[in-house]
Amino acid sequence: MIKADAVIIGAGAAGLMCAIEAGKRGRSVLLLEHCEKPGKKILISGGGRCNFTNKNVSPENFISHNPHFCKSALSGYTPDDFISLIEKYNIKYHEKKSGQLFCDDSSRLVVSMLENECKNSGVRIIVNCKVKNIIRNDFFEIDTESESIQTGSLVIATGGISIPKMGATDFGYNIARQFNIGLREIHPGLVPLTFSGEERKMFSEISGVSVDAEVSCKSISFRENILFTHKGLSGPAILQISSYINKGESISVNLLPETDFYEILKNNSDRKTQLSNFLSVYLPKRFAQAFMNKYSSSGPLITFPDKELKLISDKLHNWKLTPSGTEGFDKAEVTVGGVDTDELSSKTMESKKVKGLYFIGEVTDVTGWLGGYNFQWAWSSGFAAGKYV
Length: 389
Ligand SMILES: Cc1cc2nc3c(=O)[nH]c(=O)nc-3n(C[C@H](O)[C@H](O)[C@H](O)COP(=O)(O)OP(=O)(O)OC[C@H]3O[C@@H](n4cnc5c(N)ncnc54)[C@H](O)[C@@H]3O)c2cc1C
Known about the structure:
Helix content is 31%, strand content 25%. By secondary structure, the protein is α+β, with helices and mostly antiparallel strands. It has two domains: 2-187 and 336-386, FAD/NAD(P)-binding domain (3-Layer(bba) Sandwich), CATH 3.50.50; 193-326, Translation factors (Elongation Factor Tu (Ef-tu), domain 3). The site of flavin-adenine dinucleotide has 37 residues, from helix 1, helix 2 and helix 13.
């Protein structure tokens, strides 16, 4: 029987950070990972360059049934704290857009940095480790395929179920169920949307085309590119909105957010230019053509009655689309939902019901926007628990 002050299951972003902080406090820490190496999602993140944080992090950038829950952890360990660590290791980075910080070189540097910090804090990482069973008497007793481990503090950092081929499992949710801890329904987030029928046909014909647009659902909007694909829609604005929509809900796309296109059409209504050619001044030609083919008759601008110009401009400003689904957990960058934050202390991430049991990172019902926010939640929640385990 091995004894440790803290056992952390899952050596991803949150688990590594938690282990480092607990180790720095002199705790004996075991970090158990079922894959062959730690930090696999960090390695593939940000197209291999890890968008490790966002300078403009605020609670508004996170989705949770309790929007206040993330505040304490985010203020206890901020983007500046992580940037200081990155700079201590002389890892070069740059800002891509809207505060998003990426490594100049490779995500590997971030994983090596975290592994090195673990080593310096005396953390023992055990890879290829399969946990078979956990019971709680006075302590937590964890049976793996090769060891029995006893600990007073057990941290679940196994993430969500997005991208199972990178090691994602539903382990964390099962542990929550085992200890009667509530879960919020999960669904794929930051994921491309799929369409059926006529729309799928149209999108597939213009796959590869992207348009700067404002995409809205309920009261939330994102202004970024949308990308037409063979299956439907992707691109940053779509990925962002995908985290917010429920099955059967529609999105609204404003394809010309900076114009009043009805005014523009009216002011040009005496022109002999084909309407689709006129539209390609404002939007990519292939898209303009496909859009007009689907939603309007063809002809020179001068032949369109005012009523029809109004209909066309309304459609361009408020294009209502109902996805048939998403590309699912295999393609989703995150899992929305998870361990109910009402069950956890926002200061320590400890379960309110089960003393000594902690949940951190993506397994919790806190999901960040695209742009470095999910890693910041992993660092901040990992740090918060690491100070207490
Ligand atoms: C393709 C892709 C790109 C991304 N890019 C970015 C980005 O650039 N910026 C950003 O902020 N976010 C990004 N994300 C999201 C980000 O990777 C996650 O939100 C973040 O990794 C969550 O950290 P975590 O520690 O909670 O979970 P994870 O990093 O998923 O770590 C969980 C760990 O637990 C292990 N595990 C799972 N089950 C078990 C088990 N039963 N026993 C033992 N170990 C187990 C896993 O193998 C893994 O190592 C990206 C996600 C994907 C899929």
